[in-house]
Amino acid sequence: GAVVSQHPSRVICKSGTSVKIECRSLDFQATTMFWYRQFPKQSLMLMATSNEGSKATYEQGVEKDKFLINHASLTLSTLTVTSAHPEDSSFYICSASAGTEAFFGQGTRLTVV
Amino acid sequence: GESVGLHLPTLSVQEGDNSIINCAYSNSASDYFIWYKQESGKGPQFIIDIRSNMDKRQGQRVTVLLNKTVKHLSLQIAATQPGDSAVYFCAEIAMNRDDKIIFGKGTRLHILP
Questions:
Q1: B9-60 residue pLDDT tens
Q2: Which candidate in B23, B92, B99 is best for mutational testing of the A interface (most A CBs within 10 A)?
Q3: How far apart are the first and last CA of chain B?
């Protein structure tokens, strides 16, 4: 099946710094990528939908200036958590869409100290 | 907006028994449904899907049932194995609208030895 690579798998950063998470579709072109956030023992919450070459569409309550999404090519989308704070600590997962199927990255565990 | 997940309910099943995981979806316009399995620290894995023109679909040891009248989805796992222990999420998609994957709250399945 299709492979989506998400990097890094774990990151610890200091409060106030920015962190970039990459999501790559390795063997297919993904016109749409989705970014999710998952709190411990909870479901995945959609943060934003990213279309190649255009601005991301953010879900209600998600700060677009805080969570910068760039989808510069058909195989790469990035999520940058700007000026991270401890409450941004979470598990972030990307998903790349190929037609009717969606493939998930392995997730990034972000810890802000 | 997206539903915020509560703490995940847990279903404990004896190894070898059958398990049924239930899910209520929210959008009557959703026409494509997927069950995902998520192991600790990993991204969701596709298990089985069903379109709204069907009410039942079978895979290997898994069956998905869809009741559109009450907006209910279930996942049946036959002859459970230790490797089935995971969190299971249903997801709904409104094709031809925005293709966003909206996840249900999730259920933790615990297989007892």
A1: 899 999 999 999 999 988 888 889 999 998 887 788 889 999 999 999 999 9
A2: B99
A3: 40
Among the listed residues A42, A102, A62, A91, the one whose alpha carbon sits nearest the alpha carbon of residue B36: A102
Residue A100 φ/ψ, nearest 5 degrees: -90, -5
- Measured between CB atoms, which of A32, A59, A105 is closest to B43? A105
| Cis status of the peptide bond prior to B44, with omega within 30 of 0 | no
Residue A2: CB atoms within 10 A of its CB come to: 14
- Which amino acid appears at position A78 of this protein? T
Helix (H) or strand (E) holding B39: none
A49 touches chain B (CB under 8 A): yes
Shortest CB distance from B2 goes to which of A6, A49, A59?
A59
Contacts of A3 (CB under 8 A, 6+ apart): A25, A26, A27, A103
Does A25 reach chain B within 8 Å, measured CB to CB?
no
What lies within 8 Å, CB to CB, of B15 at 6+ separation is: B80, B81, B82, B111, B112, B113
Report the C-alpha gap between B6 and B15 in whole angstroms: 27
User: Residue B88's closest chain A neighbor by CA?
Assistant: A43
